[in-house]
Amino acid sequence: MSEALRISRVDITPVAFKDPALLNAVGVHEPYALRAVIEVTTDQGIAGLGETYADEGHLRRLRSAADALTGMDVHALGAMRRRIAELTGDDRGGDGHGLTGMITTSSTVDRVFSPFEVACLDIQGRAAGRPVSDLLGGAVRDEVPFSAYLFYKWAAHPGHEPDEWGPALDPYGIVAQARRMVERFGFGAIKLKGGVMPPEQEVEAVLELRRAFPGIPLRLDPNAAWTVETSLKVARRLEGVLEYLEDPTPGQEGMARVAREAPMPLATNMCVVAFDELPSAVRDDAVGVVLSDHHYWGGLHRSKLLAGICATFGMGLSMHSNSHLGISLAAMTHLAAATENLTYACDTHWPWKDPAEDVIVPGVLGFRAGAVAVPRSPGLGVELDRDALARLHEQYLRCGLRNRDDTGYMRRLDPSYEKKSPRW
Ligand SMILES: O=C([O-])C(=O)C[C@H](O)[C@@H](O)C(=O)[O-]
Question: How far does the signal peptide extend, from start to end residue (predicted)?
């Protein structure tokens, strides 16, 4: 039997990178997005990478988990998760963790375990000379399609630097943003973040997108900003236009009422965010598509478990994102490549990031025709750029967000912004 690879050291480095003034149902993105880079090193000197949220509460839990996992074999993933569960208890919720408009009910154990699992899989892959997708059962696709993630957006906002994208505050601004995204990255699917403008304006924006991009799958996601009645009006107006409508209204009960009459599937990353929320969603037909996210579903293996449950119960599977760096993009790509029923283009915030602001050595990951090629080198296939890590850590120390005990990600709308009524 080959030797154990024991964890001898864990480095957790919080970083900040610039985020544009993107709008959603609860506010505007902070000028910086916070992430934590996890580097796990074994006694044989093999290092692996993970990435996760970086609010203070999460950082505290990551640090205690790191101490508890030191000395364990990187193959003992089940035992690692159990040890983290002993530390955190069955705590649920508390922090927003970049999930818009909700205090998440996702599992703390799964959120804390996830970046360690990814880093350990990176090490396993490096040691075995295999890409992470092989450790997940093998890639069933060589490249993973992602969607253009459009946002209503201010040109700038206090604390944000003006960026090359400019404002997008009406349907024409949204179509112009989509054209630039599609021209630059080649995306073959489009998602619009809604819940910001009056619903009829958001319907207009989707219809303009349909005119501008005939045949491209479209999605609209108002982050549960609407009533059941408004959701149904929108759904009827967009019959035959949307591939899915994401989280139109809060809660499984409301979603089930919309789902009964809506002419398209409903998707969610808000009312099903943990395994124990699946049975009622299935029983009540509340959702047609679940958006997975390995950051809160407990890593890559548990995301595959979610995929299996969705397949069993006839639900579709897509993938959620928050503002993220290249380590997460690599993990998302390996997972999607190895998940047969993940047939929707995945979400990504990647295009909104300044390409010069990342912690990985550039050149390995990129979009061609809207897709990312699955890395074939051992592990995740990405390397840490230590100078960039130090720079973005300095930015974290300077940016003034680190003492917040929330997501460090969203700012509630300031009073000068008059939010339009979410009702129709
Ligand atoms: O529903 C979603 O897609 C998200 O929760 C992703 C992000 O939080 C999104 O709303 C954002 O970045 O504003």
Answer: none
